[in-house]
Specification:
It is a single chain. The protein is an alpha+beta fold. The chain is built from two helices and four strands. The protein has a four-stranded antiparallel beta sheet with strand order 1-2-3-4, with helices on one face. 15% of the residues are buried.
């Protein structure tokens, strides 16, 4: 199952706005055969907040993870070390 392989970490850093945020997405199997999408977000250096969204079908969970990743990248989040804003941190 590909659900075990998903672990996405994104950063959004903008020194002009004093913004240093992280967003994490992980797929985790449940005890009942489903898959949970675990979201973790907050200011870099803090533990942040978390939310769990459980799906019965692994493919549904994978689609939800990709949808969230795409949405965050549209809002300016990047994989650490790949963008000019993240390199400045």
């Amino acid at each position: 199952m590909r659900a075990h392989l998903e672990d996405i970490h994104l950063h959004r850093i903008d020194p002009a706005l004093n913004m240093r945020r992280f967003y994490g997405l992980t797929l985790q199997p449940t005890l009942f055969g489903g898959v949970s999408v675990i979201r973790n977000w907050g200011r870099i250096g803090t533990s942040g907040q978390a939310m769990v969204e459980t799906h019965d079908n692994p493919d549904e969970a994978h689609r939800a993870l990709r949808r969230l990743e795409t949405m965050k990248k549209r809002r300016g989040y990047e994989v650490p070390g790949t963008g000019s804003r993240c390199d400045a941190a």
